[in-house]
Design a protein that fits this description.
With about 120 residues, the protein is mostly helical. The chain has 2 helices and no strands. The longest helix has about 80 residues. The protein is rod-shaped, with a radius of gyration of 43 Å. The chain starts with a helix and ends in a 9-residue tail after the last helix.
């Protein structure tokens, strides 16, 4: 098996060497033209990839700035919400104390309104 692989490798190498030895100038020119065309295509693809990367980076920057702005806005809303909850809690406590004082006064006047039941 090992000798078969070696034989196949030597055979392929021999074919490549013979092909390269017997190539004429038109074949070499054609190969040079192909190589040049492939290099031009590779350069074009490289330029397109750079442009795509640039566009993606710009959009990423915009999205990052937008998300940062949203985070700040949410933090501010959370702070305002906490303040509003505290204000509501204080207002309900004041309302309860006012109602309790009202009911005490009504009881002292021997009145029994619905709110005090």
């Amino acid at each position: 098996m090992k000798s078969f692989v070696t034989f196949a490798f030597v055979g392929a190498a021999t074919i490549v060497v013979v092909f390269l030895l017997f190539m004429n100038e038109s074949d070499q020119a054609e190969l040079a033209e192909r190589i040049h065309r492939y290099e031009a295509q590779a350069d074009s693809l490289k330029k397109a990839v750079r442009q795509i990367d640039s566009n993606i980076h710009q959009k990423d920057s915009i999205l990052l700035a937008y998300l940062t702005s949203l985070d700040k806005t949410l933090e501010e809303l959370n702070k305002e919400s906490a303040k509003n909850k505290e204000a509501l809690r204080l207002n309900f406590a004041k309302q309860d104390s006012v109602r309790a004082a009202y009911c005490r006064e009504m009881k002292s006047l021997q009145q029994h309104p619905e709110e005090c039941q």
